[in-house]
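ok so I'm stuck.
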Amino acid sequence: MKRSNEQSLKQALDQLVDGFGLREKMDELDITTQWDKVVGPMVARHTVAVRLVRGRLVVKVDSAPLRQELMYMREALKEVLNHRAGRPVVQEIMLD
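replied:
not stuck anymore, here's the structure
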């Protein structure tokens, strides 16, 4: 039985991550790892860089037509990435 002053391991780890200021880096690692799975192998091959900075996902691709296509898909991609993260991590997707 859990006492009222005890916390779960997840809560303790979350406090530790937040206390050391690692949340943003962990979110970036999680989101950039998920990018290839979410967009598929064709888009992943043409993705040059993916970076998460303060809720803004900056994606660089090597194809102008692909960049245009992804512009139309930004909201859907944001929803899928946030769903996989389990919370709203990506606020905006910027394509470069």
